[in-house]
Amino acid sequence: MTEPTPRHRPSARGDGRREEILRAAFELFSERGYRGTSIAAIAERIGLTQQGLMHYFPTKNDLLTAVLELRDQWDVAQVLRTGDSAPARLDLLADLVEYNTDRPAIVQAFTVLAADSVTEKHPAKPYFQERYGHVRDGVAASLRQEFGEQLPGGLSPEDLAPLVVAAMDGLQLQWLLNPEEVDMSARFRDLLTLLRAAAGAQETVPER
Questions:
Q1: Which of 53, 94, 124, 144 could bridge across to 157 with cysteines, CB 3.0–4.6 Å?
Q2: What is the pLDDT of residues 52-90, one digit of tens each?
Q3: Nearest alpha carbon to residue 142 among 161, 125, 155
Q4: Helices H, strands E: what count in the chain?
Q5: ∠ CA 110-114-48 to the nearest 5 degrees?
Q6: Are 157 and 141 spatial neighbours (Cβ–Cβ below 8 Å)?
Q7: Helical H runs in 35-121?
Q8: What confidence tens digit (pLDDT) does each residue in 121-176 have?
Q9: C-alpha 28 chain-centroid distance
Q10: What kind and span of H or E run contains 102?
Q11: pLDDT digits (tens, 9 = 90+) for 11-65
Q12: Does residue 29 contact residue 67 with C-beta atoms inside 8 Å?
C-alpha cells in the first residue's frame, strides 16, 4: 500500500480541531448553560471565526448533540476499561461515580445541561428523556442480577432504579457545590452497602 499523499491526510488535524471545539463547548455550556452560550463565544475561545467553527458544526444544536454524545462515549470507554462489556453490575456504577471525580468540568457541564433541558422546547430534552430511560433500564438490570426480582421492602428492580439514579445525580450536584465535604464516590458505595445489608437481612428473616 502506498503512503497517502498529504492532501489525503487532513482528517487527523480535523479530528483534533473537532475535539478542541467540543472541549471549549463543554467549558462554556458548564459556565453559562446552553442558552447563554453562543457559537461566536465558543469560536472565540479557541481562536476560530464563527464561520470556521460552523464548518465542523453547522448549527448550535449539532454542537450540543456532539457534546452529549462525546460525554456518553467517555462513559462507555470507562465501562470497557474495566473489562466488562456488559454493564450489569452495581460495582460498575460505583466505578463510574469514582471516575467522575477526576473530571469535574465534564460533570458540571452535564449537570447544567440536564437542568437546562427541563425548560420548554430545549433541544436537549429528547436526548435526556431517552438517556434517563436507558439508564433506569440498565440500573434495573444491575439490581435484578444481584438481588433477583424482589428487593428489600418488596420493591421491584424497576421501582428502585429511579432512586439509585437520583442518588447518583444528587451526589454529583452536592459534590460540585462542596467537594471538600461530599465524597460522592464513598457515599454511593455506602448506598450499595446499605442495599446489600438490607437484602441480606431480608434473606435471614425466618418465615412464620
A1: 144
A2: 999 999 988 889 888 888 877 766 655 545 545 444 488
A3: 161
A4: 9, 0
A5: 55
A6: yes
A7: 39-45, 50-56, 60-81, 90-100, 104-116
A8: 888 899 899 989 988 998 999 999 999 998 888 899 999 999 999 999 999 999 99
A9: 17
A10: none
A11: 556 678 998 999 899 888 888 888 889 999 999 999 999 999 999 999 888 898 8
A12: yes
Q: Report DSSP state, residue 4.
A: P
d(CA 134, CA 168): 15
Question: H or E element: which one contains 2?
Answer: none
Cβ contacts of 15 within 8 Å, gap of 6 or more: none
DSSP state of 178: -
Cα separation of 147 and 197, whole Å?
Answer: 11
Residue whose grid cell is 453490575: 89
Query: What whole-number distance in Å separates Cα of residue 48 and Cα of residue 23?
Result: 14
**Which amino acid belongs to residue 93?**
L
Cα distance between residue 93 and residue 47, in whole Å: 38
